[in-house]
């Protein structure tokens, strides 16, 4: 502005001299510069509003009387001086034309009365002021002759001088006024190429005075004079009062709302800043404190070990104490063992009937899968029916229908062609990206022509469905044509017309003459998308073919800042109507979307060399899930086949090559797999009969879980049978019963823990988690029952076959029977016995495990989030350069259920002040952290605030709000009025669906639309939902304070994504609650079935908790988001962890070895090998195969997460748990000293015997050989021997705890008492 003023000052003297001063020789108060009308301007070819130019008239102003004075009071009240003293420089015809012009501006400015008044005053002074000649200087005229032969001088250009203060004040009062129908600023339509972002006072006035804008009848050169400066030659700049936007025009009116005027907003306290991070110096404070705590407890632990090793005093050996808990545990174990022994003997004696019964029951329950319903709707999967988002969605859909459907095409330049600089003679130089070229735009028009003509035949209806049958047509919803369909693209700036795109014209600006083409029109439209006519010689409209604006942030992507011409991507968006699934038209739109995908896919192939084209329809997500699921079925099949092959090969114990076919267990393994699958199918069928739906994720997760549990039990049972020697006089059936009695309590412990765990997990509010937990619980229960019946029978038959030397699979053939054979080829158990266990339980290694394992436990910041689409999807590649999701800015609606009684009339209408109307006053858009664009309110547009917006006589002839009766009569007209240039307030398209009324016209619900900022990640979507709900609560609280409002009245925000992202508001708390519920029964069942063994049960709980913590921590390191799918896998992780932990703990608890270390070693060797073979080695091959799946869901949550769970469970079960039990596990005799305890005897070495000899000794020589060995080592009868790497010199059931800080969390007082007594 200052630069323009400087140029004006330098050139004014010469300019005024060359401007023919004789055109306005008199610059004096009371004199005019022009008067009356002199016809149309011959220099204006296209005008949106027909208007005439004034006649040259540098004479005194004339007296206003009669109709002119009456109209002047209405249009320009500031110019009225009195009934006999009011002089003007305009006629009644001019004033009438001015009234129409001001009314057009009022449609976009009337929301702010002071802005509207200031804008009207500008033209009132220009046209009618009696002192017109003081600030006006006519610079150019044309001569014309009327039809009557009268010569006239028509003014076609003049200068208008304003003071800088007055012009700035008028501009400032209008720059914040919103245009709700478009979501932008009103100034966007009044500043030409600059838009609201770059608009200034000078640019605003220059556009008003540009004869090429389609509204101005002549050229006006606005000159802004610095305050206190006079241009000279008698010219005095206009310096009238301009109302501030926060000022009321009169006592009975209100100032502009907060939404349109920042000065009207009450002071909003700044939100509290987040607390600074806790730091100690430059380090993280929490990390430092944790390190100090760990160091302290590690020091206590190591000091206790050292002090314990220095004790030399020998303690007396006391008799074992057997408390009630020990006796109860022993009795319960014997009771269970007796039941399982008798049951195993019975089943092994009658295998075929048991198999038949088990198969019939499993098949009968599996038949229920015929009624199975698969839930594919994400809303039904992840959002509880009673959740807030579901209830809000149901209310919204009932009153306003489902959200629109979207089809998009995103085009980028594949060859990264260089951009070019275009030097516009009108608009200056602009850089254009390579994709914004005439060739690419022509290609886009070709694609749009194909899509517009796309149709699909509907066999059921016997008709063809085209775009116009399903498209969203906001301005003609009842009977749309193809031209009425809402299509947003950059070619809509040319109304999708090739002729207009190719137009070229010559234009002169000042002394420069050049050509203008599509570049100039595009530059203008991206900055002023609401213009009906550009300022170039092309004189084209920027409005789309369907009649609405095309905003550049919708049609373009990947641009820096607001430089739209440098966009890297062109976006075509088709908006389609959405229908309920029960509506036949739902199939129409799905079919047309399928046709859309086919057309664009063909187009993609034809232009793949030059353009990168990605696309999506509303159905694409479901299509992609189905596609990748189908493509990944072979991956899952291979995964299961690998697992089956491993089980089939690993179950056998081979002693010689000639007996491979006899000792093979392929048939038994397949039978065990059939038992597992039968349990899965039976559980699904059983729950389907109860009416519980299932989902694809359940079909994918539950078999893996049950297979891990079932395979573990199979390996434990079969390997125990293989390693057990039949006693003298014992039958095969009795042998199987005895083995079952040994392993079944452990299997019952794990299965019962998992069943109760998942049953409690079913208390989750998430439907998918609840369904998964129920299915897993029932499946594991059925698996245990089928294994106790069907698999025991299968083992009995297989044992009979092997003893008969019959071949596996082909049992009709066989070989000669042989005598008893030795143990078969074993690798894992000897490795654990001779290398791994002695090393792990070495007196130096155990403290290292404690001090190095515990610090690594704990979750890090695992992000909330969802997975993306497959990387080979047709709608991924072009989204990368956009820097945002394809949908971009997303609308959010503020919905009040109904409208409460309000005001003296008790009716909810604008006349009495609907409580939603003050939203602008309360500053919703200004306060909303999620608002990218302002809210679109139908109430301020429907309720007239003045009398100049009347059309066809349907108006109020008073400046007031309507009465209730008037409001009810006017509202339907407003909602169905087509917005035009003459009636921009028409509600059709913008507001016709914003009000839900019943048959009587009562408002049942309404909605106001705002916009969220572009959101990219799940965290941003969740934060937007949280902010929207907080804002809705604030609005609700404010409106409830309005007298007459129902106390239960509330406002809620709604958009299509909220129902999906609501889970992230509660998924952390929900997950903690679910996982804690799963851990509780694990501890309680262990405590009860292990004979009230508190220490072993706590060890189980600690280890499983550490597995979960480490899993969550590794999830963060491996970019695995935490969501409902991850929670399902974590719940499954509890079940798998039980398999890794509980079997070994049970073996430790029931071991008869005299010391903690020996019992931990025995449990690790006997049960650790089975756990590795049955759980880890069963899962790992199948999991690794899943790495080749295409779906990110499978890659992340099935490959990565299951791999983490399996490896973490294996590491904790075989490394951490044995060391933990060696320190805190309960010794025989309820903690009392037993004859087998090793004591420190001064001057005597103490050792351990080999835990598991390679060769079995007869009862007769055991004692003698042991005595010889003890004699050689100098050990007494009660002292075991040391073998291998050695053991601690002092071994006792009273060693210091593994991790005091962890144990203090679980059993602080009891454990401290126990620890102090042990010292």
TrEMBL record:
Domain SSD: 632-797
Transmembrane segment boundaries: 285-305, 343-365, 633-654, 666-690, 696-718, 739-766, 772-797, 1072-1092, 1098-1118, 1125-1151, 1171-1189, 1201-1224
Gene Ontology biological process terms in this record: cholesterol homeostasis; cholesterol metabolic process; cholesterol transport; intestinal cholesterol absorption
One Gene Ontology CC term in the entry: endomembrane system
Gene Ontology terms, MF aspect: cholesterol binding
Entries under InterPro entries matching the protein: HMGCR/SNAP/NPC1-like_SSD (IPR053958), NPC1_MLD (IPR053956), NPC1_N (IPR032190), SSD (IPR000731)
Catalysis performed (reactions): cholesterol(in) = cholesterol(out)
Annotated keywords: Cholesterol metabolism, Disulfide bond, Glycoprotein, Lipid metabolism, Membrane, Signal, Steroid metabolism, Sterol metabolism, Transmembrane, Transmembrane helix, Transport
Membrane topology term: Multi-pass membrane protein
Keyword Repressor: no
Record localization: Endomembrane system
Pfam (any one): NPC1_MLD
Region (Disordered): 1251-1278
Protein family: Belongs to the patched family.
Name this polypeptide is given: NPC1 like intracellular cholesterol transporter 1
